[in-house]
Design goal:
The chain is α/β, with parallel strands linked by helices. Helix content is 38%, strand content 16%. Strand 10 (264-269), helix 12 (280-289) and strand 11 form a beta-alpha-beta unit.
Length: 338
Amino acid sequence: MKSYYDKKDGYRETIKEGLIGASNFGRSMSKGKDKKEEQLSKLKNEIQSAEAIVIGAGAGLSTSAGFTYSGERFERYFFDFAKKYKIKDMYSGGFYPFPDSETKWAWWARHIYFNRYVEPPKPVYKDLLSIFENKNYFVITTNVDHQFQRAGFDKKRLFYTQGDYGLFQSVDPEIQKTYDNEDWVMRAMEAQGFIKDENGVFDVPDNKEISMKLPKSLIPKCPDGNFDVTTNLRADSSFVEDEGWYKASESYYNFLEENKNKHILFLELGVGANTPVIIKYPFWQMTKSNEKAVYACINYGAAFCPMEIEDRTICIDGDIGEVLNSILKLPVAKIVSL
């Protein structure tokens, strides 16, 4: 694990909590005790009454917002890669061994653009903001698509633990810096033959004549030393945790410390099984450790909690966007402790 000055590292502190929880909780899980309508009312009540709220967001939130990695979006923007290389979706394409750098970076320009620099098809993030913008909240997320900031969330209350599609890093491990890639992405999209529609968004031309290669002159290089670059996405120990990352990690640590003995709502949104030790397990453990805390989970097909905290848990199985719409429509309930 890396160190950075003497700052508090909320990322690794919360992982410690998660590891404790993973070893302490039994295998018995609960999906909640009440019907969905009652759970919705309880969640609305907790949002109104909590002194602090920690939002933990996973891939399911962006999927609910329409950022799907397969199906119509993939077939529209990556039809040529699918045909030539038999790639089935955007996720697996990110690991494909492309034959050369020109092809690899043509893929990544599209992948980054359509998952970072466009508005999501559905207003789920903006609905989330409308619910929490006046609350004492902090967001920790494993998502790398920057959609919280695009929706208007306060960047000082955000911690992207796993990186950002909008950043590159050098392949030289001595260079612990990241580099904004927006200008490069836009030039790379234009070079492939994408054209801007009436809203200024790149789209496939009607004749579908786009290139799967970039000119060699557009292969991105590190400004510090002209080394090759790679995406700033956590895959192994080479992931660059830059100064901005550590500031966000420290802010997360401070928020948890300032509110650890208060009535705090840990709200988990769409967290899957890939990285439970970053959000899910820590949320369980921190709820167990604070008798005033409440854990809530909104997840399609995967809303559950350990039996040990069932009495202070709200589990809602459903599409996050639909659940948020339901919450927005509900009247504020009378404040009743769980």
